[in-house]
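Lecture 7 notes: from sequence to structure.

We start with a single chain of 78 residues. Read the sequence below before looking at the structure.
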Amino acid sequence: MTTLRAAIPNDLHEAVLAQAEREHISVGALVSRTLRAAVALPLLGLSVQERAARGNWEDFDRIMARVPDAPPVPRDER
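Now the structure, written as tokens:
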């Protein structure tokens, strides 16, 4: 395992701490998972546009139909 050090803004640090707490995982696990997802596309040789082209609108509509029609949670409004 390798240690990675990075300087990040305080507000991002607070958000990472809060997200890790909500998910009941360590900050290291959260950062590792996020970095893994961020580099997965180039490793697969697929651009975002190529992945999007593989999408299926019928599947998207079927999945989105399961989302409840409710107002956003507080502080998640646009």
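Helices lie at 10-23, 27-44, 48-53, 57-64. Keep this in mind for problem set 3.
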